[in-house]
Amino acid sequence: MRFDASEILARLNGGLIVSCQAYPGEAMRDPRTMVQIAHAAIVGGAAAIRLQGIADIRAAEALPVPVVGLWKDGDSDVFITPTLAHARAVADAGADIVALDGTRRSRPDGLTLTETIARLRETHDVLVMADCGSLDDAIAAENAGADILGTTLSGYSGERPKTAGPDLELIAQLSEHCHRPIVAEGRIHTPAAAAAAKDAGANSVCVGTAITHPSTITSWFVRALEEER
User: Fold this and answer.
1) Residue 210, CA distances (Å) to 117, 135, 162, 185, 191 in order
2) What is the pLDDT of residues 21-31, one digit of tens each?
3) How far is CA 132 from CA 33, 40, 122, 166, 186, in A?
4) Where do the domains of the chain lie, and which CATH numbers do they carry?
5) What SS3 class is residue 182?
6) Average model confidence (pLDDT) across the chain
7) In angstroms, rounded to a whole number, what is the distance separating the alpha carbons of residues 27 and 129?
8) What is the pLDDT of residues 159-184, one digit of tens each?
9) What is the model's pTM?
10) Among 134, 144, 10, 12, CA closest to 68
11) Cα 56 to chain centroid, rounded
């Protein structure tokens, strides 16, 4: 870990995490491109960068801010850093924070979240961010030893409806019932939505698509023009 835990949490508090990800087959699906976008986001004030994939995380070694790393793999419901082996690989690649599925669903390797976090810490000095889908997930993840709680999977795990914007209700619930820092993530498409997420109780806000995915951003404008015809 390039930063100590207290420094990372201090940097994240009140800050913006920018998620730099491209899907397989897209023009920007290259680690060098993702890191260039990350540098641009840092110039704009990003407090941390979230990256997917081992190659991207390795390429981000020189970034001057903490890196939240994850590895999307597999075709099961749990695919965000789904196993202990994935978590260790993300840490080995240089992530300061390992983001993993923080739901209560069964993990592909049969380990519980508690076992995964405990065994990861036996070999790596990293923080763990649990991507949760509900309040019950967040409480369980906190009890399992997660350092950071994210609302990333709200609307995707079957426990909560998919909201048009950030799940402000869930953010408020986590703020009331949990003690770990909260990262609001998911469907935050405007600065106003980011501010609303912070007002609801988030310590940090993570934005991806609205900043770093030009294909989707372009489609928003095209759709708006088509609706005016």
Assistant:
1) 31, 25, 17, 12, 10
2) 998 899 999 99
3) 28, 28, 23, 13, 11
4) 5-227 (3.20.20.70)
5) strand
6) 97
7) 29
8) 999 999 999 999 999 999 999 999 99
9) 0.97
10) 12
11) 15
